[in-house]
Amino acid sequence: MTEEASNSGDAGGEPPKPPQSIAAERFFLSKQLGSGCFGEVWLGDDRKKGGNVAVKLEVKAAGTKQLANEYEILATLKCPSQQQGFTEVYHFGREGLFICLVMELLGKSLDDLIELCKGKFDMATCALLGDQIVRRMEYLHSKGIIHRDVKPENFMMGVGSKAHIVYLIDFGLSEPYWNDGQHAMAMKDDLTGTARYASINAHDRA
């Protein structure tokens, strides 16, 4: 039996099991951290460099291409060099039935932190966070890219020596809005992103 056949699930529609390791056994998956419409996020162990990583998994047969899009966006943002506040990518490829994206492991999201702070940040914290958030969005837009799913869950803090740095994450829905000196996006009637944080105009068009 091939690896893909053994991971494809039974006739009852069971989802395929994630691989135990990827990238020629460089990264080993240990536990699931979360899931979403695109797939799952796992905690991984980098056996080459040491330390933990985040591993995003997307079932190839599902027909979505959010991880491929996210990888392309992150590669664009990395040029000419890795930018502060954007996750570093260590690997992108296919493993069995899964598309895998291995990235720098981050800490808690702003949504988690505001909950820990009982729904309110003090003024100094708001100022420090706001400054970094604006800088992340400015850099993204300077590359001619729009995020399309801005929300507290998609801003995360770093870990260790980078615990004070705000990261902008999750570029699966992102698109170029400016190309060759002109707008590159067409207006769409369907709602993109998270309805709770979408604009009034977006809701009116949906």
Uncertain runs with pLDDT below 50, 5 residues or more?
A: 1-7
Apparent shape: globular
* Mean pLDDT figure: 88
CA-atom Rg in angstroms = 18 Å
* Fold-level CATH name of the largest domain: Phosphorylase Kinase, domain 1
Distance between the termini: 46 Å
CATH class of the largest domain: Alpha Beta
Biggest sheet statistics: 6 strands, antiparallel
Helix content: 10-25%
Structural class: alpha+beta
Number of helices: 5
CATH homologous superfamily annotation of the largest domain:
Phosphorylase Kinase, domain 1
How many E strands? 12
Biggest sheet: strands side by side, in what order?
Answer: 1-2-3-4-6-5
Please explain how this structure is put together.
The chain is of the alpha+beta class and 206 residues long. It has two domains: 3-104, Phosphorylase Kinase, domain 1; 110-205, Transferase(Phosphotransferase), domain 1 (Orthogonal Bundle). It has five helices and twelve strands. The strands form four sheets. A six-stranded antiparallel β-sheet has the order 1-2-3-4-6-5, with helices on one face. It has a two-stranded antiparallel ribbon with strand order 7-10. Strands 8-9 form a two-stranded antiparallel ribbon. 23% of the residues are buried. Mean pLDDT is 88; it is low at 1-7.
How do the strands and helices of this protein lay out in sequence?
Layout: H1 3-7, E1 21-22, E2 27-35, E3 40-46, E4 52-59, H2 66-78, E5 89-95, E6 98-104, H3 110-116, H4 123-142, E7 145-146, E8 155-157, E9 166-168, E10 175-176, E11 178-179, E12 182-183, H5 200-205
Antiparallel strand pairs: 1-2, 2-3, 3-4, 4-6, 5-6, 7-10, 8-9, 11-12
